[in-house]
Amino acid sequence: MLAATALALLALSACASQVPAAVEHGTQVPGFWWGLWHGFVFPFAWIGSLFDPDIAVYAVPNTGGWYDFGFFLGVTVLGGGSWFSSKKKRKS
Questions:
Q1: Three-state SS for 7?
Q2: Are 75 and 38 a contacting pair, CB within 8 Å?
Q3: Rounded CA separation 80/74 (Å)
Q4: pLDDT tens by residue, the chain, 92 residues
Q5: Taken in order 27, 76, 56, 45, is the CA torsion positive or negative?
Q6: H/E run at residue 73
């Protein structure tokens, strides 16, 4: 079962690549801070993207790891941060 799961994940990861020539690189590529902002506004951008095909939730091209890290922090602080604060024990 573990081998089948690993093989399926490996096969799916082959679909995740993007053709570099298909993306136009501008002079200013979004980095960490834009990734953080895009992570914060993700829920609103996602809802907007359901109705307007010109709205994207993720900037391509970007700086790579730093943009991804900022995006991850933005999404987790907005979503996960409120979950963790609600689980704190309150003194009565």
A1: helix
A2: no
A3: 10
A4: 888 888 877 776 666 555 555 556 667 888 899 999 889 888 888 899 899 888 888 888 888 899 999 999 998 887 665 555 666 655 65
A5: negative
A6: helix 65-86
